[in-house]
Amino acid sequence: MQILRPAVAMIELIFAIVILGITMMSAPMLISQASSSGITVLQQEAIAAAASELGMIMTRQWDEQDTNETQQSPILVVSSTGHVDLAEATDADGNLTGRRAGTPPMSARSFLTSLGGVRFNATAATALGSEGGDDDDIDDFNGNTITLTVVTATDTQTGDYADTSLQLTISVNYLLDTPTNNYQQASITYSQPFSQTTNNTTNIKAVTVTATSGSHDTELNTNVVLRAFSCNIGSYTLKEGRF
Asked: Which residues span the domain enclosing 205?
């Protein structure tokens, strides 16, 4: 009597080889996708770092002249004459009103300080930067370079920045506050990239935070640029009394 033993049929072997071949063909694609996801994570990390720094800077006062806590922040006088509407208005007799045209008399936004009625000039374009390291207004951060460092050892549970070579560079500039077209046209187009002025003070300051990576791996090199704008509008006060 002949005993039959179980064995792999040729057709089953062929199917197994085909399935293995398909699996191996998809492996490079999966590896490439995983690598691309890793690069995306590092880019998001750079964006988060730049956005965090930019948000912190924007909480500061518009100018050093606005940092006196004993008085209300005034609108500052700027040297740019490109936008007459933003200058201090005059009355019928030609006297300065302390306000911009269209500002209601009850508004606290004024060119005059709340103590003594003095007018202050905005910091010169050539003097933007720190005035002693107090970092109390936005242009104090101009020219700063920040390199992320590992403060304490971390693990997969506590987490940390994966790219510790990430560097943040900050610049603050005055921008031209005059559009290229006039108000009579259907649309207003501003000059791009945002036109900076190094000679005059204007009513707009731009804060630019650039996140770059010092990694030697060219695929991981990061260059993220975020911008925010702050305007010379003084401060407001809350109305007192019952409503």
From this structure: 40-231
CA atoms within 13 A on the CB side of 83: 21
Count structural domains, the chain. Answer: 1
Alpha-carbon gap, residue 154 to 103, rounded angstroms: 54
111-142 b/e with 16+ CB inside 10 Å = b? bbbbeeeebbebbebeebebeeeeeebbbbbb
Residue 87 lies in a domain: yes
Q: What is the pLDDT of residues 77-92, one digit of tens each?
A: 998 876 777 888 888 8
In this structure, are residues 65 and 76 in contact, taking their beta carbons and an 8 Å threshold? Answer: yes
- Looking at the DSSP bridge assignments, the partners of residue 137 are 61
Task: Give per-residue pLDDT as tens, 168-227.
Answer: 999 999 988 875 555 555 665 555 556 777 788 999 999 999 988 765 455 556 788 899
Q: In whole angstroms, what is the distance from residue 49 CA to residue 30 CA?
A: 29
